[in-house]
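ok here's Tripartite tricarboxylate transporter substrate binding protein, seq below lol
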Amino acid sequence: MNKHTSASRRQWISALANAAALLASFSPPAHAQDWPGTRPLSWIVPYPPAGSTDVMARAIAQRVGASLGTTVVIDNKPGATGTIGGAYVAKASPDGTTALMTTIGAQAIAPHLMGKLPYDPLHDLEPVALVGTIPHLLVVAPSQPFKSVAELLAAGKARPGEIAFASGGNGTILQMQAELLAMRSGVRFLHVPYKGDTPALQDTLGAQVQFMFAPVAAAMPHVKTGKLRALAVTSATRLKVLPDVPTMAEAGQKDFVVEQWQGIYLPARTPPTTVQRLNAEINKALREPAVAELADKLGVTLVGGAPQRLTDTQNADSATWARVIRTANIKAD
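and the structure came out like this:
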């Protein structure tokens, strides 16, 4: 990935952020309803502006605010793998005036990786809606000899600890997937953590490492141009945009469905009527064509549904990654 490509990608993401509209706040219409009070809804995003979670949060919040007839203020509180923003919302008053849009990293990985957190992601936040999922591609540079997942695993078994994979850092979902693959296959890979997904992808492109699990949106342009070879996708079904790339299950890895996800929460003990009202408005926003188009550009598969769907997803992933972290003895940076 050259500087021009990286700069273009940053400009593209920034443009999407602007297109999500009204980067700071959204004013209520004249017929504002009392939802559940007149104070603005503070929508916390525990990551920096212009990332996919931030962009999606702004697009959804704009529509939710207009529908509820209230002002929605986006507040970025990045740091500590998303747990700074999570802790802020967990300690907020459960009155419907503070919400959180976060990801699998903070809610299902960090609790098992970072020791004692200032809040309990499983119990101090009330699930509202599963926004969407982001599959990943297992990719290698074209110069690598591996043409399939089976060939990659065979090389790993023949050369224990020598086949290296990149990730955006210790404890990221990108590392977790490779560790899960190794654990299930009885293979020992070498983890090479980077400070972010972009430099990890750059060294995968340059064949400094043998493979990487990369977000679809980041890897797909390179797959399309032949600069990366995709061995499999981690979703349950093949991607429409990459119909020739098999799923991990088709590549011989049964039940290997691993996707990053984005979810919206309120503080624990928020009244059920407030949770259900916000859930309904989020689902309404997810059905809008402009939101679906934005999600498609970001590589997000919209989900929605009842709060229980987010609860079930978080609980299942939390159990999976706790087991992987213990087995692989993964430590936070």
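fwiw The first helix runs from residue 3 to 19. kinda neat tbh
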